[in-house]
Amino acid sequence: MAITGIDHVQLAMPPGSEDTARAFYRDIIGLREADKPEHLRVNGGCWFESGTAHIHLGVDEAFAPARKAHPALLVEDLAALAAQLREKGVAFKPGKPLEGYARGDITDPFGNRIELMQRL
C-alpha cells in the first residue's frame, strides 16, 4: 500500500461563517468555490480549490484557530501575491528561509495559519 497524495486539507471555522470564508478564500486569495455534495451541505461549511489545492472549511461548534498546523499552498509569484494581499488588508509575514522556496504566512479571517510557498 502506498499513499499517493493529499486530496484536501480541512480547516475549521465558527458556525455561520460561510460568507466570511467566501469573502476571503474566493474573493481575496482567488480560490474557486467547489460544490459540496448535497448530503454534506447540511453540516455547513464550504469547499475551495485551485489546481490541485483543495481546502475544505468545516463548521466547529468549539472552534479554535489552527495557529501551528496549516496548509502550505504553492503559488506562482509570491511577491506579487503578497502585494495584492496587502492591498486587500491581509497581513503577510515573510517566512524563514527554506532551500528552494520563497515563503511566508497569512491568516484567514478565523485566525487559521496559511503558508504560501513559491518554488525557486
Automatic annotation (TrEMBL):
Protein name per Swiss-Prot or TrEMBL: VOC family protein
InterPro entries noted in UniProt: Glyas_Bleomycin-R_OHBP_Dase, Glyas_Fos-R_dOase_dom, VOC_core
One Pfam family this sequence matches: Glyoxalase
PANTHER family: FAMILY PROTEIN, PUTATIVE (AFU_ORTHOLOGUE AFUA_3G15060)-RELATED (PTHR39175:SF1)
Signal peptide extent: none
Transmembrane parts of this sequence: none
Domain VOC per the UniProt entry, residue ranges: 5-119
Source organism, top-level taxon: Bacteria
